[in-house]
Amino acid sequence: MNDALIANLRAQCGGPRDGALLRFSLGNALLSAGDAAGAMPELKRAVAFDASYSAAWKLLGKACLAVGDTEGAVDAWQHGITAAQARGDKQAEKEMTVFLRRLEKQA
Hints:
Blueprint: H1 2-12, H2 20-32, H3 36-49, H4 54-66, H5 70-87, H6 90-106
């Protein structure tokens, strides 16, 4: 199922429906399939399309962390918190703040 979903989403990239939601969906599917390295560029494209997409920043941070890129995760979550605050997305802001605190405790 996930392979078919990923293939379908990839087929739409570069077309008229390409945008933040498509790239977020593809990144999410790749991350769910265990391909964090493949998810990262798609999630970066999602936030390039829409820098205020706090959910994409949150997922990008998770993908970065999964591949061992702690600095990338911190950067993504900091951008995500800023985006969430600007949009009034309190839940995403709280989640990313917790993720950052956990990283600080590990360091």
